[in-house]
Amino acid sequence: MTFAWYDVVGFAGTLMILGAFAAQQIGKMRGDGAAYQLLNLFGAAGILVSLMGSFNVSVFVLESAWVLVSAYGLWRSRKLRAR
């Protein structure tokens, strides 16, 4: 089994999202923190890149929404910290 570069990027994205989720669940990372939002944003972006190899509309919609929600969360947390 060989992996193309976009498969590696997608796998790294999956690890970012799962790692952030696990860290948040065990209390090692705050769900409203920048690190959590960035891991989710870049993880979802990595999964979107992986769709270059085999497109799936459901995954595209899910990960696009994940990027948008993560970007909003990052913006919101920066806005709240600026107060």
UniProtKB/TrEMBL annotation:
**InterPro entries this protein is in?**
CBU_0592-like
Domain (CBU-0592-like) ranges: 6-79
The UniProt keyword set, sorted, is: Membrane, Transmembrane, Transmembrane helix
Q: What is the top-level taxon of the source organism?
A: Bacteria
- Segments traversing the membrane: 6-23, 57-75
Protein's name according to its UniProt entry: Permease
Q: Which organism is it from?
A: Lysobacter dokdonensis DS-58
**Source organism lineage?**
Bacteria, Pseudomonadati, Pseudomonadota, Gammaproteobacteria, Lysobacterales
